[in-house]
Amino acid sequence: MVKNHMKRISMPRTWKLDRKDIKWISRPNAGAHGLMKGMALETIMKELIKCANTRKEAKTILYNKEVMVDGKRRRDLKLPVGLMDVVSLPEVDEHYRIIINKRSEIDTVKINKNEAGVKPCKIKNKTILKGGATQLNLAGSRNMIFKKGEKVPYAVGDTVMLSLPKQEIKDHIKFEKGSKAYLTGGKYVGYTGVIESIENDIIRIKNDEGKTLETNKRHAYVIGKDKPVVTISAK
Fold this sequence. Notes:
CATH 2.40.50.740, 5-stranded antiparallel sheet, globular
């Protein structure tokens, strides 16, 4: 059985929290994000967004249906929340996107209401199912299935922009030279830039300072064609 809490001293290094604060911290349920890439909603509320000071306050806010994740009202304190998820407090019109900052930590960036209605999802895999249907495996453990014969102009590494909460594809960003990429891992985690080249497993991007960064292409998350379509404030 998975424990409800963990010691702060043992929490993942990606959690942007003080290890010497109170001894225990909430462990997220198993779900779309693993421990390295996600936190419990309760922890996001108390430690990052700071809309609650205690577990009791967080529970009250959730039970009053005052918090939305990806456009849906949530009541689970231990719901795993991670990269690119949108956390909204509709009562005060505040919205946040989960990002990975330049210290490789889970962080938040404040966004506006319009941006809170979309979510970029990277295509991790593409397979043909029995019967000829096509399945896309997206970041965040989402799957999309297209019927046999249906046009599927998406490739592994591309990003699809989903509407929230319906999660319908509204736009498509190709993983190609000239696209804007956000690095979610590796030596240059948290940086953004324009893709200069893709050679085998290596990608080179030019950041805003004009410096060329080289890393494994699995770390690249395309977020725009000419400019980012979502706010990524990598600190």
